[in-house]
Amino acid sequence: MKTIKGDLILTEDTTFNESIKVEGDIKGNYNLKVIGDINCLNINCLNINCLNINCWNIDCRNINCGNIDCWNINCGNIDCWNIILCDEIKVKGKCIAKALIKDRFNIEIKEQIKENKQ
Q1: Nearest Cα to 55, choosing from 34, 14, 107?
Q2: Which among 29, 41, 67, 84 is least surrounded, fewest beta carbons within 10 Å?
Q3: Which residues in 47-80 are b (16+ Cβ under 10 Å) and which e?
Q4: Is there a domain that residue 115 lies in?
Q5: What total of structural domains would you count in the chain?
């Protein structure tokens, strides 16, 4: 995993061939492709293509990844494999996901008890 101290400012379309951890924000009006995961505070860029995103806020045009876990998402389109966990989600286009969880802190807790069948 590559660690970037401070902000990652994109000045051109950028590809990382490994997971990245950004100790600040990811900024720039360019595309970001990461062969692995992204862990950072905030993302503001055109397109994101990666496996997993774990951050505070995402503001971009398109997201294509495996899993997203963050507070706020504001984007054009989301194409996601597993779960989007967030407090607030604003999608101007379409959101495609197997599971979409909004307002996760106010979700009713459900309890399931395993029954023994004999």
Answers
A1: 34
A2: 29
A3: bbebebbebebbebebbebebbebeebebebbeb
A4: no
A5: 1
